[in-house]
Amino acid sequence: MERNLTLIALFAALIAALGLVPKLTLISGVPISAQSLGIMLCGTVLGAKRGALAVLLFLALVALGLPLLAGGRGGLGVFSGVTMGYLIGFPVAAFVTGLLAEMWRSRGGFIFPAVAALIGGVVVLNVLGIIGMSIKLDKTLADAALLATPFIPGDVLKCVLAGLITQGLLKARPGLVRA
């Protein structure tokens, strides 16, 4: 139990630390940041339940006003902004990524955690993010999806990194990886 709590807190801190990487805000108002890599790693390393709990802890800290999002943003207001769909999607993405990583763990290699990150951390997260942008920007889903396309190359790179990091952790500390 203590180990699980420690890992959940550690991965919430990892997501926060990845927000320190300088952000680049696109015309849509949604920043490109490394935090989605942390969401993917929550799923591939901690698994579905623990990964989602780590993300929920991170979001609770953001809601309390801690400036943990890319660019030093925090507080309840961020949950009603253009990034609301992405924020709502964070725990869902970690859960789906973790669920897939758990199902495919026995297959080994970096490709399966990378694919789990692609499905959960890119597809699921972007679907929810695009819906949120569509609502907040009063655009069609197609127009909002076009605004999200600049994220795709970086997201694919993050999936590869998530797969490689997860594979490295499995080799170095097999007991750490729960997914």
UniProtKB/TrEMBL annotation:
Keywords: Cell membrane, Membrane, Transmembrane, Transmembrane helix, Transport. The chain crosses the membrane at residues 53-70, 76-101, 110-131. PANTHER family: BIOTIN TRANSPORTER BIOY, BIOTIN TRANSPORTER BIOY-RELATED. The keyword Lipoprotein does not apply. The keyword Transmembrane applies. It is a multi-pass membrane protein. It comes from the Bacteria. One of its GO terms (cellular component) is plasma membrane. InterPro entries: BioY. It comes from Thalassovita taeanensis. It is found in: Cell membrane. This is Biotin transporter. Belongs to the BioY family. One of its GO terms (molecular function) is biotin transmembrane transporter activity.
